[in-house]
Design a protein that fits this description.
With 529 residues, the protein is of the alpha+beta class. It has 6 helices and 29 strands.
């Protein structure tokens, strides 16, 4: 058994040694080539060659031992040399007879067996004129009707390799994909490439061309066959027709264009009077014309008004169009006013307007925010406050209320009272120290709600005081007892708003109040340097 296995292995080695070398060839696979073009055949192995042989269909075998001397005039060696294992040739001006298999055989040095490889070359042959066929109409007549299904078939015969065919309806491509570019020929004739499609016809298909287009490597430009469709359909609906720009006292022409096939018959109906095409009305002021063809199912109907009057713009105009497929009546209105130009905004204009509005809204919001918080250009711009304004910017500042009688001079020299001449501090002086303190956070609701902040007497030592004439004595005494002439008071705006009668400014007992901002105590106690 061991001897049998040894002899089997020896026989395999002997058979493998008798096989030729592996040959690589280009091109790989079937390649179409046009008549008159150049063709390159490249064979190579990994060993130096003694010779190479190329078999050309219908020409015989070309043996190459010395690349510098080749017998054929249209064949050249283009490799680096046989010692590099390359057998490269270029065939100039390919003939139609070269169609078939090119076989390349090589003999490496030190080998007794040749190696070979083949490449299939297809000499391109242009196809015949494409053939286009349409299924007949259901009526058997040489036209189709709207909604009818049309079957279309297209083929191109005689091409080698096979031609690519495509079906078009006008500029619309009907075939979902092209046929394969190459098909292997069988026998003397090339295989036939056929495309079939179906379509439900619309009225817009009337006058369009069905085209069968064949493209091929052997053609400089595609070949095509086309047929124009004839589709019958009734007059197509339109929205109300309006015509503008008529001038009183001048001739007016009402022109209406409709789509219909075959040719329609027109009848103008003005109020209750019917006017056939090519005739006039009972007053001989209105003249109609026959249908005028504009092409591809478009027809023009014209009504001429001899001299336009104001009453003509108030009349009812209707146009009735009818053919063997149906009837439709169109409403027509005329006017002496000029047509108002429509505003046509594209997508870019709309986007620009939206962005502009958003930027405007953002700018308004920022102005309100800066105004309410005293930021940016509004920082430090306010030097006083109104009665009842909430001190959300700096709650640490104390608000004092000084109350005094109507200004009077103490003597003939014209000096003012001590109360009136009391020292005052500006808001800027007070804020100079208050700004070093932490600023409170501001919520969104504080920007828009009415300020109703009050100084709570429970949190501070400030005495709650209502500023009215009735409690004049009580307020003054309390203020003097606490702060030596300075009354710390809370303004209750609610009670002030509830007073029914406002006091007149010119009364003798009119009292004046002024809100002053005092400096912090730490700054007041600091001696001057």
């Amino acid at each position: 058994m061991k001897f049998c296995g040894f002899f089997d292995l020896l026989s395999v080695l002997l058979r493998s040694s008798q096989q030729g070398p592996l040959v690589e060839i280009e091109p790989k696979g079937p390649i179409p080539v046009r008549v008159g073009q150049d063709l390159e055949i490249k064979c190579r192995v990994s060993k130096p060659l003694v010779y190479c042989r190329v078999e050309i269909p219908n020409e015989g075998a070309l043996v190459i031992q010395d690349p510098s001397t080749l017998p054929a005039e249209n064949i050249r060696y283009i490799g680096r040399g046989l010692d590099k294992g390359e057998c490269y040739i270029r065939i100039q001006n390919v003939k139609e007879s070269y169609n078939g298999n090119f076989k390349c055989s090589v003999l490496p040095r030190g080998s007794a067996y040749e190696g070979s490889a083949s490449a299939k070359i297809v000499i391109a042959k242009p196809p015949q004129q494409p053939q286009l066929s349409l299924t007949p109409s259901s009526s058997g007549r040489p036209f189709y009707k709207k909604g009818e299904t049309l079957e279309i078939s297209c083929n191109a015969l005689g091409g080698s390799p096979n031609a690519n065919v495509t079906i078009y309806l006008g500029d619309e491509k009907l075939t979902s994909e092209d046929s394969p570019f190459y098909h292997e020929p069988t026998g003397n004739d090339a295989k036939l490439d056929i495309q079939n499609v179906s379509r439900s016809l619309e009225w817009t298909d009337h006058g369009r061309e069905v085209k069968c287009v064949a493209s091929h490597i052997a053609l400089d430009r595609p070949k095509e066959t086309k047929v124009q469709l004839d589709v019958h359909y009734p007059p197509q609906p339109q929205p109300n027709i309006e015509r503008f720009g008529y001038v009183i006292g001048q001739q007016g022409v009402v022109n209406v264009t409709i789509n219909a096939n075959p040719r329609p018959d027109f009848t103008w109906i003005v109020d209750a009077e019917e006017i056939e095409a090519g005739r006039t009305d009972s007053s001989n002021r209105l003249q109609t014309s026959s249908a005028y063809e504009l092409g591809k199912g478009k027809w023009s109907a014209i009504l001429t008004i001899d001299s336009v009057q104001k009453s003509d713009t108030e009349r009812d105009y209707r146009l009735r169009a009818s053919n063997e497929e149906g009837t439709y009546t169109y409403e027509v209105k005329i006017s002496t006013s000029s047509e108002a130009p429509g505003v046509d905004l594209d997508a870019g204009s709309i986007i620009g307007i939206v962005i502009g509005v958003l930027i405007l809204i953002l700018a308004i919001f920022l102005v309100i925010f800066a105004r309410a918080t005293g930021r940016w250009c509004f920082a430090g711009g306010r030097t006083s406050r109104n009665i009842g304004e909430s001190d959300i910017a700096d709650p640490a500042v104390t608000v004092n209320l000084l109350r005094f009688h109507k200004p009077k001079t103490d003597d003939a020299s014209g000096r003012r009272s001590d109360t009136e001449s009391a020292g005052r501090y500006s808001r800027s002086e007070v804020d100079s120290t208050g700004r070093r303190q932490r600023r409170p956070k501001i919520t969104f609701s504080q920007l828009f709600k009415r300020n109703k902040d009050k100084v709570s007497g429970a949190d501070t030592d400030t005495v709650r005081t209502n500023v009215t004439v009735d409690d004049e004595k009580q307020t003054t005494e309390t203020g003097k007892a606490d702060k030596g002439g300075i009354v710390y008071a809370e303004l209750d705006l609610t009670q002030q708003q509830q007073q029914q009668q406002a006091r007149r400014i010119d009364e003798d007992k009119t009292e004046y109040a002024e809100i002053l901002y005092t400096k912090p105590e730490a700054e007041a106690q600091t001696p001057d340097k």
